[in-house]
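Summary for the lay section of the report: proteins are chains of building blocks that fold into shapes. Here we show the chain for GAF domain-containing protein and then a coded description of the shape we predicted for it.
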Amino acid sequence: MTAASGQRPLPTGSPVTEQPDEEDVRALFGQSIAVFASLVGPSHLVETANPAFFATIGAHRARTGVPLVELVPELEGQGFLVLLDEVYRTGRSHTGRDVRVLLDAGTHTREAFFDFTYEPRRDTGGGVVGIRVIGVETTQVKHAQRLTAEHRALLEQIARQAPLTEVLDGMARCIENLAPQEVLVSVLLADPDGAHLRHGAGPGLPDFYNQAIDGIATGEGVGSCGTAAHRREPVVVSDIATDPFWDDFRDLAGRAGLAACWSTPILARDGSLLGTFAMYHRVPRAPEDSDLALARVFAGTAALAIERHHNEQARRDAETRAAKAHAELAKAMDAERELRAEAELRATAAAELAARMRAAAAATATVPHPEHCQLGGTEGCAAPAELKVADAWGDAAWGCHDHAEEALLNVRSAFIANEELGGLAAYINRSPSARRTTPAPDA
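The coded shape description reads as follows.
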C-alpha cells in the first residue's frame, strides 16, 4: 500500500514504538480461547498471534512475518481486509458481532462466526502503526441457535401431525445444512417385528444408496445401522474402509463416497425399536461430544415423530374398523327389517288364506265338491277345483293347482287328493306347464 491510498506507511528505518501494555496484551491472550493477532503496517503483516488464532485459520498455516492476506487468502472479498484498511487509515476501532466468515477452500471450507474488534496500535507520537485483532468465535452458539429454532419448528410440525416423511426429511436437511462440517443424514424405520429397516429419509445420500439399504436386516455386524438396531445402542464406525461391520457394504459405500458412519438407535418410550438415525461423513472421522449430543437430540425428536405417526395410524385403523363394523351392523339391521317385513306379509297372506279356507269350508258343507276354485280371494278364480286342502283346524277347501300350492306355502295344511281326478298321482304327474317349484306337500 502507498501513501496515495490514504494509508500511513512506516517511516523507513524508524523502529516501531508500541504502547507500554503491548506485551501484557500478548501475554493475556497467549493461551486464551479468544483469537488474538497483532498486525503491523498497511500490509497487515502478522507479527504475532496466539494458538487460538492459528487453530481458527488452520494449524498448517501457523506462521508469522507474512501479510494476513497471504496467510489467509480466502479473506479477500469478504470485507475483512477492507475494514482493516479503514481502521489503519482512520485510527478508529471497529467492532463486529456474529460476523460470518468462510475459512479455508474447496472441500475443507467451513463457515464460522465471530465477535471481534479491530483496535489501532499507536506509537508514542499517536500515529497508527498496526492493528490488534481480538475476537471470540461464536460459531457453536450461532449453530446452537439455528438448531434450536429448527428443532422448535420440527416439534411444531409433529404437534400439527404433519406427514412423517415430511418431518424426517426436514430434520435431515436441517442437520445437513447447519452442521459445521459436511454431514449426510439417514433415517431408517423398523418393521413391526424389528427384523428389518426401511427407508425413512436420506435427502443428501444418492438414490441408489437409499434403495440398496432399504430393507436391510437388523443384526450384529450388519453395517452401522443394522448393528445399532440389534444392540439398541449407538455404533460408531470412524473408517468404513477398515471396519468389519461394513464388509458386505464397503463397495456400496465407496460408490456413494462415504467414509464414516455413526448410527444411533431410535427407541420408543417402552424401549422398542422404531428405527435408526445415522450421520455419514465423506472422510474418516470420529465423533466429538457435540456430535453425539446432536445425534441424541435428533434421535429423540425422530422417536417422538415416529411414535406420534404410529399412534395416529393406529387411531385411523381403529376408526376404519369401527366404520366397517358399523356398516356391517347397519346392513344386518336392514336385512332383519326386510325379513321382518316379509314375515309380516306372509303372516297377513296366511291370515287371508285361513279366512278363505274357513269361508270355503262353510260352502263345502252344502256343496261337497265345487266346480271352481274356492281359494282365489275376493277376485275369485274360474279355474277348476282339482285339489282339496285342509288346515290344522280341520277347515277344508277346494282349489286349483296354483292356489292350492299357495295355501300349502302360507298355511300349515294337509293335502287331500281328489280320487275322481286321479288323486295324488295325478297331482305329481301333472303337465310341466302346471308345475311350480314347491316343497313336497304333507300327504
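Put simply, here is one thing we learned. Residues 143-315 form a domain with the Beta-Lactamase fold (CATH 3.30.450.40).
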